[in-house]
Amino acid sequence: MSSVREEGKDRIIFVTKEDHATPSSAELVEEDPENDPYEERGLILPSGEINWNCPCLGGMASGPCGTEFKDAFSCFHYSKEEVKGSECLEQFRAMQECMQRYPELYPQDDEKVQQEQSSETEQNLQDSASAETSGANSTSATKRDSDSTKPSTEGSVES
Length: 159
Known about the structure:
It is built from five helices and two strands; from the N terminus they run ββααααα. The protein is mainly alpha-helical.
């Protein structure tokens, strides 16, 4: 015979071998999908509210910047301005600042692109500066360099 003991919020049930030997009499109740708040319905629920459980959000609503994300996204979603979301700049700035504090969780893909572009720009500026200081000699050197990079078609034989 089983016994039940309550400890705070927990309920502890001890069962015997005989309790396990008899089939369970528990009945499973089919859940109503119409009233299931966790049912995947897309980003916007029929009520017009945001479905924070939508997989389309990629987990952004949870995590260390979830509150900032929800604030910014809600502001944008419910925006009535002519330029939608134009009043939400402060919320988006707060979200961005939060994400920058966690670069391992929110990597910034365009950082690499920006670094590559800035190094290319620096190289171009250095090339321009050296070309200006060397005057006419750099013009002939540049012409020679560009001539040497052109593919030579002389003496090429097609088979």
